[in-house]
Amino acid sequence: MTATTVLTARALLLDMDGTLVNSDAVVERIWRRWADRHGLEGDEVMKVVHGRQGYASMAVLLPDRPMKQNHADNARMLAEETADLEGVVAIPGAPEFLASLRGLPHALVTSADVGLSTARMAAAGLGLPDVRITAESVGASKPDPEGFLKGAAELGVDPAECVVFEDSGAGISAGRAAGMRVVGVGPRAHRHRPDVVVPDLVGVRVERVGDGELRVSFGVGGV
């Protein structure tokens, strides 16, 4: 951490996987098995799947396959992911970061469904925000901005006054498309040029500074 950056906002919208929860181990296990079943190169599959709903990743990777089959396959994958919580842990600083948001406008905006998001947050020892936009809440996966726009609407805040925390290229693109500023968390975020990049949530500070305004400050260093 070599400098301090400050953003102001009226609400924060938080991705889950890679942002609050490190679920990379299980995502790698399950998606590499899926890649093997379909004769795809695992490393290439892993470049696509972060941040998207499973059916949307499948549509990119198997463009000629009927979407109905992708949705059925996605349901099976979600069940696998929900049952496999080995190695799921909190991103460093996430417990303290979420604790600092109590009583402040914020929402979880995740491509996971209710069951998976509940299981992973619990496995990581993190409480769920009161406002949650999950896979069931939207008709389009990130990088479509629908989820972030719904999060802002649920909180009653103009999109331009929201700050998104995201780790993936799909999520960062979704936040930008929603007209929001984006804080990138971790090494995946760095190459997608969000407004600010932090290696994790350690040292991120959020405080109310009056008239509903939030002040978000964090050190900024290499990741």
Question: Could you describe the 3D structure shown?
Answer:
By secondary structure, this protein is α/β, with parallel strands linked by helices. 39% of the residues lie in helices and 22% in strands. The protein has helices at residues 24-37, 42-49, 54-61, 67-83, 94-100, 114-123, 146-155, 169-177, 187-190, and strands at residues 3-9, 11-14, 21-22, 89-90, 106-109, 131-133, 162-166, 181-185, 196-198, 205-210, 213-220. Strands 6-5-2-7-8-9 form a 6-stranded parallel beta sheet. A 3-stranded antiparallel beta sheet has the order 1-11-10, with no helix packed on it. Strands 3-4 form a two-stranded antiparallel ribbon. Helix 6 (114-123) links the parallel strand 5 and strand 6. Helix 3 packs across helix 4.
List key phrases describing it.
9 helices, alpha/beta, three-stranded antiparallel β-sheet, 223 residues, globular
